Amino acid sequence: MQITKELVQHIASTARLQLSEQEINEFTPQLKEILDMFSQLDQIDTKNILPSFHPIKLENVTREDTLKPSLTQEQALSLTKHKQDGYFKGPIQQHIKDVQNKSIDIVECTAKALEETRSINKEYNYFTAISEELALSQAKNLKANPKGKLAGVFLSVKDAICVKGVESTAGSRILKGYKPVFNATVIQRCIDEGAIILGKTSQDEFGFGGFAVNTEIVPKNPFNKERVTGGSSGGSAGFTQKADFAHLSLGESTGGSIVNPAFFCGVYGLCPTYSRVSRYGLLDYGNSLDKIGPIAKTIEDTALLLNIIAGNDKNDCTSSQTKTEDYTKFLNKHIKGMKIGIIKDLFGDKVDEKIKKSIQKKIEQLESEGAKCEEISMPITAKYSIPAYYIIATAEASTNLAKYCGLRYGAAENLQGNYNEFFTKVREANFSKEAKRRIMLGTFTRMAGYRDAYYTKAMQVRTKIIEEYQHLFKKYNALLSPTMPMLAPKFSELKQLTPLQHYMADIMTAPPNLAGMPHLNVPIGMHNDQALGLMLTTDHFQEGKLIQIAGNIK
Amino acid sequence: MPTLILTENFEKFTSDIIIGIEVHIQLNTATKLFCSCASKREDAPNTRTCQTCLGHPGSKPLVNKKAIEFAAMLALALHCKINPEIRFSRKVYFYPDLAKNYQITQFEVPLGENGCIILDSGKKIKIERIHLEEDPASLIHPAGIEKSQYTLIDYNRSGIPLCEIVTAPEMHSPEEAREFMNKLKIILQYLKIFDENFCVIKADANISIKESGYIRSEIKNITGFKEIEDALAYEIQRQKQAIQNNEKLIQDTRGWNPDNKTTIRLRTKETEADYGYIIDPDLVPIQLSEKFIKQIQQLMPELPEQKIHKFIHTHKIAETDAKVLAAEYRLAELFEQIAVEVSPQIAAKWLRRELTRVVNYNKMNLSQLKIDSKHLIELFSMIEKNEITETVGQDIMNQLILKPFSPKEYVQKNNLAKIQDKTQLESICKEIISKNAKVVQDYKNGKQEALHFLIGQVMKQMKGKADAKLLKELFEKMI
Known about the structure:
heterodimer, A: about 550 residues, 15 strands, B: about 475 residues, Arc Repressor Mutant, subunit A, 9-stranded mixed beta sheet, 3-stranded antiparallel beta sheet
């Protein structure tokens, strides 16, 4: 695939990004390398294969034509400094310029938890915002009316999930100062059940990364501050390991961002089936891939939080109407007779031997509990998941990120130049390099003339991967693999990796995310200062079985 | 590596002028296309917005069922095939009026395809597709478009449902384009999916001429039905002039300035945005089953073509009358209500000529007219039964569209019944003759107008109640 500097320049201007000469020189070979990897999809025959625009069959969700109250003018305008007489104020349009130029004591307890949170945060960078005011007022209300399935439980929330009135930036400078006017459905459900919101946790910008280093506030591994937490939900996982009080965390995964940091931080992280948990109020990365899920110290806590957040939501038409189950009922259930497939393609040379050995022991233990474990192969999934995942994720992300332009909320630059210049300036100054790289990739793969070969092709490949999973799930109750191919690296080690090597680290986690399959990191001990873990995957809506098997791993 | 394919097939064209139109119609739903904010009402800026239509991160769209029903009705009325499953796409481009910097529209599979509108000449104009999309916000330039240093943005309009209709390039004159638009307007009136008083129709027109080898210009955002004809006529002249001056035409996008009636270049084809369409992953496919289409068909009112047929064959009125009545929904509606009680011929004549005359005189709009068919029935039946004269009838009509009242009571109260008593009339005629000796002499000398003057004098005295025909007979006999 020929990638010229001119093409890179063209993509950048289409996406209203301005790249320096150095960035262009850097991006050109990087994009070529990544696009060559994408082009592996050419090798798979997708004739007569329908594309899977969602991993789950979803259809026919509409809304009645009934009025609901709108925001007041003040609310609508409250997030921008660019306003006048009730209007949003924007830069002058391009074509005008063109015309011109012719161009417990829960209150006390909360105070204590907040203090501890602040002190941990000082050392480990787990939070982008600590919502002290909200937490204390919730605590006061709770003191008067102590009710709910999560009453008094402290909840930390990945920055990408909207909490009304609390700065929510998805780890990006471009959303500085953005305080949502509404709660995400998961937040509302947790609040309704009495959870106390501690704050927003650090993450890779918009979820773009597997090590939580693509952001300004970089979280540190709870076992060794020189190591990464993994990502992108790094702050959530690290804090979950560190917090010594009743605490749960909400993470979010697009291509592995729940199980990955859970693995590196030695905690449970459950990524539910796509559509199982409402995405309403989630700052989108790849909408057909994004899932919110629990991160917790124990499997019991994980099941408890899933019980609260799972279920249909009328505000998100991609949320499933399939009935939920009481996931805590799967705790303490035996696994006799269960069949577990061991994905041998994911135990290759590139996987750290220490990980392989630790998992082998657990497989033996599962067999001793009465499960039957067999090696299976997923050739299509193992080979094509990464390119298909990155094509879909970046194509969708590049459209989601278009809205960030400094006009209605977030980073506010002075209104100068025409709107193209203004948007470009805001985006250039406030997106990180990785965000720019992904916007560039996504803008390219959906361009007229390339869309079918990349975007549509990837959607078709997703169909084949879902089929490969579902074929196996006819025979097996669950699949087992490593969560990550490597143990928690040091920040210094990461610096040597190219963007493509970063992407390839998702080799284990991209497949279930792409296919919308629920998956879970089970922590299985330590190797010195590095956590160990394994990943379980089940069929759509079989979260219960994940919990059941995990409960039997000791 | 895939290559960009840009094909423009001009070879098939042979006529002098080629016109294709894209029409955007604001649908008359209560709420917006993807959120529950009100879709209309005159209001202060940014008072009908929420996180969804402001494009706040984390917000999600939810499709308005009614908008799909309305679009399906229009597709059926335009004889389109309705696709069994539709999806929504994101069309990405950066513009301050787009809350998300992408517009949710339909790209791959439109709601309807392959329809037509038939012109009076019998010519069919093909509708290539009809789809749903969201309206952008409105931009306001406080000091006028050329002098403003900033733009004011009102997101009240952001997300209002639009139905887009795309025709094949099959029209050959500005007049055909206007007729097409008029036919479309009538259908919208009948379907009641468009509110003329609140909603807006905008058109983009593609136009090219033979002399240039069909190099196409697209004129954007033409509002109004007369404007489209003017804009196209101007553009044909501009293109012809350019060819005559040996200028090379290039494919471009132009804006219509209704104030000075000219078009100006906005951009050339090379600078057109690449929209990078993807399926909107926040929305799910919607199935338009045969059952759904049947339900929509049951909701459909009779359309103009069916009405004309019915008026001619059931009500037995003349074809020209039927066409005029059917061309205005309100007239057709009134006619049907009245023709059950009164002779359809009288109803047709009076609605078509007199009601329309009075409405036009008062610069009113038929769709805004508040008139009770009961009162028209009273009026027309008095005319039918010869109880009042046409003059009195016309006078009542003049007043009836300004305020409602019972014509029957009015006639009684004001003693306006037609006077058929010959003796009474004779005595008045006598009086007029004696008062106007000179006029009488003129008439005797063969001046016919003199007789009309005399009749007029009687009428004046009788407040129009006399039978003009009878008066004429009397005068002829008496002089």
